[in-house]
Amino acid sequence: MELKKNPEIDINRKRGLFFSIGLTISLSLVILAFEYKTPVEGDLVDLGKTKADFDEIVEIPPTEQPPPPPVKTLQMPQVIEVPDEQEIEEEIEINLDVEITEEMAIEEFIYEEVPMEEEVEEIFTIVEQAPMYKGGNVAMYNYLGKELRYPSVARRMGIEGRVFVQFVVDKDGKITDVLSLKGIGGGCDEEAVRVVSSMPSWNPGKQRGKPVKVRMVLPVFFRLKDNDGLTAN
Q1: Is 75 exposed, middle or buried (0-12, 13-18, 19+ CB in 10 A)?
Q2: Which of 1, 122, 154, 208 could form a disulfide with 159 if both were Cys (CB 3.0 to 4.6 A apart)?
Q3: What is the pLDDT of residue 139?
Q4: Which of 38-52, 114-128, 172-186, 195-209 has the lowest mean pLDDT?
Q5: Which residues contact 214 (CB under 8 A, 6 or more apart)?
Q6: Fold of 123-225
Q7: What is the pLDDT of residues 129-170, one digit of tens each?
Q8: H helices of the chain, where?
Q9: Which one is predicted more confidently, 176 or 230?
């Protein structure tokens, strides 16, 4: 069943009227609030007739500064010329009558010898003329193959490889400062150092035509053959 409203008693019809009345009342209250004046109690005071007690301003005289000291003028020194021909006479007494008796002893001057610091000779790594084994590289490898003894421990363990031996060829060709830089173990390092240390003298290296010390590195190969032999290259 559809509900029907009576248009005469419908409130929504007068909604605009009610909004206008409310807006008018609100504006009236706002205007009234701004126009309302609160009464001030007491009489008005004329500030022009009041006597204010202010401190009198005391004028401070400016401080008198003393005048600056006078500037002293520097006087240039006077140069007095001395004539070159003026001779200075001065008597010097020299007594040559000195008697020397036997009791007088003349101390001997002893020269102390200062030990000279030994100069550390430079060891070259690259020179104009490199050191050479007497007979060449072929003779050197033949010497190594003949003198090397394969260590028994390395043979049992099947150790093979190369040992890098460092040494210095002196000015007279002698081998010094032999050591193993990189080894393979099993006694091969010690054997390579022993054989290189016992090598005969080399032809020394030269720098600018003069023999010098040269540091070198020699690889020594340890290789087992089928019959447990040894080759050194």
Answers
A1: exposed
A2: 154
A3: 92
A4: 38-52
A5: 123, 124, 125, 127, 130, 131, 168, 169, 204, 205
A6: TolA/TonB C-terminal domain (3.30.2420)
A7: 999 999 899 999 899 989 999 999 999 999 999 999 999 999
A8: 15-35, 137-147, 152-157, 188-197
A9: 176
Whether the per-residue pLDDT at 55 is higher than 60: the answer is no
Would you say 202 and 153 are in contact if contact means Cβ atoms under 8 Å apart? Answer: no
| pLDDT value of residue 191 | 94
Domain residue limits, the chain: 123-225
Q: Name residues whose C-beta falls within 8 Å of residue 144's C-beta, 6 or more positions apart in sequence.
A: 195, 220, 232
Cβ-defined contacts of 115-123 (< 8 Å, 24+): 121/212, 121/213, 122/212, 122/213, 123/168, 123/213, 123/214, 123/215
Pairwise CA distance, residues 178 & 217, whole Å? 10
Do the beta carbons of residue 144 and residue 222 sit within 8 Å?
no
The answer to whether the beta carbons of residues 197 and 178 sit under 8 Å apart is: yes
Residue 207 has pLDDT above 80, yes or no: yes
DSSP H stretches of helix in 36-115 = none
